[in-house]
Amino acid sequence: MRHGSDGSAVIIRLRAAGGLLLVAHLLLVASLTLRPLDVPWVTAPNFEPLAGIEADLALGPARAARRICEGLLLLAPLGVLLPMAGGRLYVSPVASLARTALAGTLFSLGIELLQTGVPGRVVDVDSLLLNTAGVALAHLAVVPMGRARLRRREERSPGGGAVRRRDEVPQGSTPTIPRVGIAP
Questions:
Q1: Is 142 a domain residue?
Q2: Of 10, 17, 44, 86, which residue has the fewest beta carbons closer than 10 angstroms?
Q3: Number of domains in the chain
Q4: What are residue 46's phi and psi, to 5 degrees?
């Protein structure tokens, strides 16, 4: 594989960096969300969508804004890191968004389920909704533009970004065999 101006080498490096950053981010999220809380009382689990946000809005816009921002930003980096770790340039934007949002939802659901065994933590469906929205928004804000830029870079590089060994020679098209009828 050629290095330097070859677009595939950049993709490989971005993919490795994405994987490392993904692991680092998930470790940070685990340390923030799965640490026991020392509180005198614990609220009841919230299984009604948007009920917690409505309660926060009743306490004031500052508290509601803080809660919404925390929920949106906690897993938002996954919206960029998951596609980056996947390393695919040519993929449907809708399929990429759906796949990334689903993965973000599953990560958030896993965190919520793990929190049931952590003292001081309770399940909150609003966290699941906000985390998923944060992943989707981050994906929409960064990934399509980043992929387009990388595709343009790959098209400008010599060889069109094809990964080949130095000793490999293009062989041409695959030969076909004409159809021969079977005797009666």
A1: yes
A2: 44
A3: 1
A4: -110, 110
